[in-house]
Amino acid sequence: MATARKKPLSSSSSWGDWADLPDNLLHSIVSHLVSFPDLVSFASVCRSWRGLFLSTPTSILRPPLLLSSRRRIYPRRRDDTPSRCPILDPAFPSTTYFSSVSARTLSRLPFIGYSYGHAIFYLPSIRCILFADAITGDEVRTPRFPGHSIPRTYYALLTAPLSSPSSDLILLSFGLELFQWRKGGERWIRHDLGFNLPEVNHAVVFKGRVFTLDSSERLFIIQLAPVALVRQMEVKWIGEQVSPFSFKQWLVECGGELLLVRIVPTEAIMCMSVEVFRLDLSDEQMKWVKVENLGDWALFLVANKRCPGFACKNPGRWGGRGNCIYYARSGDDTWNVVELGSSEIDTTVPDSPTLNADPLKWPSPVWIYPAMFS
């Protein structure tokens, strides 16, 4: 009796089956992935899966990774193996990854910013800017900077991911000048602002515009086209018991809103607390409206003012806590969790989060989302 022979599946047909899975099913799969390696594996299956992954806002569904400032040797094969910095995952605290950027690069080069998955450094020997992918170590260099050197006060950030054709690097500093470089361009563009820009305390790209904050908590909007322009915004403060000043501030995008996080003094000596405000743009007068509870959101912050803050939705899905701020201290391999509206933070306790640490200290821990997540 003849045996029926099964028709073998060709390689192309099997890949075609995977690529033709319905988008709603794939979106459901992505929404349930928490592990960083699982997300990378999903994006590596085929071109259509990668395209769907890049179009899905995965970053708000999982926590950022923490690039530690402490050196480790990995892998331990030879004595000349370069030291690497560990990368820690709040969703899997017992798992450690390693950055492909050498610890020597992270510790020796002047750090001027972190943006869209890339640490940004200044190379004094050749006067150019170096972008280093915090995960892969891939590097991009700019043309030679037109000035003699880049001051320590410069703040660098990208207006869009490096993969975007509209990505611009801007350098901000105290003074009347702003420098711009577009990826692939052969030269820097120098803008005379006609306005004395205060030293940037924190900056964020929000809804296509660059918002900056100075140490006096004045809010500025920077635009590059059609001409470079800096505008100071008049903002009211709305809420009960708003502290008149703060030790430290961050701007964070959270769920389509711009938040201001402040570390403020309390009545108790050597104690601090956290205040959060959202920028209300509903009418002509901008307002900082006090937020009493973050709900099902968690914020991720570090001391270094050149590092962005991040927000993560529904942290309970990976074992995190809502209405909390995850704060990484300099020199630590971990983070503290501060609940908004909780009791005062006693800065004299050895393991308390030192929220008023040096804002320019480097190396320091950095919360990162891989560039492929941008």
Topology of this structure?
Layout: H1 11-19, H2 23-32, H3 36-43, H4 47-54, E1 65-67, E2 72-73, E3 83-89, E4 92-102, H5 103-108, E5 111-115, E6 118-123, E7 128-133, E8 139-141, E9 155-158, E10 168-172, E11 175-182, E12 189-197, E13 202-206, E14 209-213, E15 219-223, E16 229-233, E17 235-238, E18 248-254, E19 257-265, E20 271-280, E21 286-291, E22 297-302, E23 310-313, E24 324-328, E25 336-339, E26 345-346, E27 366-368
Parallel strand pairs: 17-21, 22-24
Antiparallel strand pairs: 1-3, 1-27, 2-3, 3-4, 5-6, 6-7, 7-8, 9-10, 10-11, 11-12, 13-14, 14-15, 15-16, 18-19, 19-20, 20-21, 20-26, 22-23, 24-25
Which architecture of the largest domain per CATH? Answer: 6 Propeller
- What count of helical segments does DSSP give? 5
Tell me about the biggest sheet? 6 strands, mixed
Residue fraction in strands:
35-45%
- Number of structural units classed as domains: 2
